Amino acid sequence: MKNIFAALMLTLVAAIGVEAKELYVDAANGNDAVSYAANGPSTPWRSLGRATWGSTSRTSPNANEAARAGDVVIVAAGVYTTTGSSTRFTPAYNPANSGNASNPITFRAASGALVSLQLSGGAGAQIGCKDRNYIIWDGFTIDEATAPRTSDTGVVDFFGSTGCEARNLHLIGTNSSNNDNHNSIRIEQSNFTRVFGNEMHGLRTLGIQGGNDAIIMMYDANDTIIENNTMYDAGVGVYVKGIHPGYTQDRTIIRKNLIYNMTVVGISLLSSHYSKVYQNVLINCNFGLNFSGLSGNEPRDDTFQNNTVHNSRQSGIWLRGTSNAWSRLKFFNNLLTANGETGINITFSSPGDLQFEHNVYQNHPLGFAWLEGGFRSFAQWQSSFGRDAAGPASMVGNPLYVNAGANDFRLCTAQGQPVASCSGASPAVGRGVDVLDINGNGSTTDLIPAGAYITGFEVIGKPGTVLNNLPPAPRNLRITTP
Fold first, then answer.
1. Residue 284 has pLDDT above 50, yes or no
2. Residues of 113-138 as b/e, b for ≥16 C-beta within 10 angstroms?
3. Which of 199-203, 380-384, 453-457 has the lowest mean pLDDT?
4. Which of 3, 68, 159, 233 is the most exposed place for a label (fewest CB within 10 A)?
5. Which residue(s) pair with 324 in the sheet?
6. Looking at the domain assignment, is residue 328 inside a domain?
7. What is the three-state SS of the chain?
8. Which residues form the domain of 305?
9. pLDDT at residue 294, as a whole number
10. Is residue 278 within 8 Å of residue 286, measured between CB atoms?
11. Beta bridge pairs of residue 75
């Protein structure tokens, strides 16, 4: 009996010993000599490295003294400096331990605190996961001017990871003179990554209007969720780019993001399978959406539903490649309005295996679509190519936004009732078919409004984003298509 009791006590002690806890970091008042066990609100560590590596040296980590599964590391206001790893894939603050699905490790800026991460030397990603799992980075500010990245990566890098997350970050880019993959967040060979609630901007490639200066770039990544972010002033917002031999890039979800002032495209899908892109607002981009069939892993089984694409300088949707490159792509319930040239630009000979239905188009000065080497009318698009004709049929006309001039792209209806500032109900109400069941009622055949705002109460972009004071779009930029 004594042996049984002793075994139970040892089990209890062991369980208590690994119990998750809150850990504290304070650059002004901390002490890195404090042990893991002694760390608390009044005895914080001084450096973020002490919390992530378990020591003050990245090259000599101590997993027993570092944040563990279930721990939350709360970082006080201040500037935290380390040297860069000067490698593509390993962040400077790569944790010594992984979390798990039930107990992630969370590194969080204290509530309301400005926590700036900088490099005193070297370069490379600051935060992320390299061969680590279930790590959350929450609330930090990284300015590339004081935290330079290396070529072909971002200031946040997820590589070989599962279940990691970038949340509530403020990521500020810089101009680059190299046409490399210049990113804020890079996701590669990683699964179940989530990017939520971030503000990211300022990535430009000087003298080159390429697509590699993308705020979020993905390679070989599965089950990624990118939602409720605000992205602006870059080449591309989200670029689902490449698949290397032996890998896949499946089931990406891109939803409820506000993306504006992109010199190339808002969202670009190059190697993307089974992706769902819905309820995004794309404003003042050269092209709103791009699908490219040029990679050998062309998009297939992707759905672009209930997005609002406004004031694209060339076209709302740009499709390039060959018609046999596509498989089962759907474009349903979208609003493409006030585009500079055409609603749709297709650079191959026919629409191929593309489904366009239940969309609303408005104001395309040069023609509804560029197809088969010329401008085509909406009537030709419907009759000759059999697109946008299924009931309730798509239309060309004014969708009646509440106030497009003030960037309010809600429809003139809210829960079925006209908005007081509107002269009537929007013709986009009831025009969409919810093939993705984004209203969650179990039906994929029910009618819903077209556009990003289905109820009028959705949060689009980083929570708290004010849409009525967006900076002006860059002008005199043009991408020449074949």
1. yes
2. eebbbbbeeebbbbbbbbebbbbbbb
3. 380-384
4. 3
5. none
6. yes
7. CHHHHHHHHHHHHHHHHCCCCEEEECCCCCCCCCCCCCCECCECECCHHHHHHCCCCCCCCCHHHCCCCCCEEEECCEEEEEECCCCCCCCCCCCCCCCCCCCCEEEEECCCCCEEEEEEECCCCCEEEECCECEEEECCEEECCCCCCCCCEEEEEEECCECCEEECCEEECCEECCCCCEEEEEEECCECCEEECCEEECCEECCCCCCCCEEEEEECCECCEEECCEEEEEEEEEEEEECCCCCCCECCEEECCEEEEEEEEEEEECCCECCEEECCEEECCCEEEEEECCCCCCCECCEEECCEEECCCCEEEEEECCHHHCECEEEECCEEECCCCEEEEECCCCCCCEEEECCEEECCCCCCEEECCEEECHHHHHHCCCCCCCCCCCEECCCCEEEHHHCEEEECCECCECCCCCCCCCCCCCCEECCCCCCCCCCCCCEECCCCCCCCCCCCCCCCCCHHHCCCCCCCCCCCCC
8. 173-468
9. 67
10. no
11. 25, 109
- What pLDDT sits at residue 449? 95
Q: What is the mean pLDDT of the chain?
A: 88
Angle at CA of residue 175, ends 94 and 272, nearest 5°: 65
Cβ atoms of 172 and 143 within 8 Å: the answer is yes
Nearest residue to 195 via CA among 218, 220, 219, 213: 218
pLDDT tens digits along 34-59? 999 999 999 999 999 999 999 999 99
Structure tokens at 396: 């060309």
The Cα-based distances of 165 to 8, 255, 268 in angstroms read 37, 16, 21
* Single pTM value for the model: 0.91
User: What is the mean predicted confidence (pLDDT) over 312-327?
Assistant: 79
**Residue 331 lies inside a defined structural domain of this protein:** yes
Indicate if the pLDDT at residue 410 is higher than 90.
yes
Q: Which residue's structure tokens are 């499946």?
A: 250
Least confident of 127-131, 395-399, 474-478: 474-478
- pLDDT at position 206: 62
Number of domains forming the structure of the chain: 1
Angle, CA 139 vertex, CA 211 and CA 62 arms, to 5°: 100
Q: What pLDDT does residue 472 have?
A: 47
Instruction: Give a yes or no: residue 34 inside a domain.
Output: no
* Amino acid identity, position 457: F
Q: Is residue 262 part of a domain?
A: yes
Q: Mind listing the pLDDT tens digit for each residue in 287-305?
A: 999 888 766 788 889 999 9
According to DSSP, the residues that pair with 346 across neighbouring strands are 319
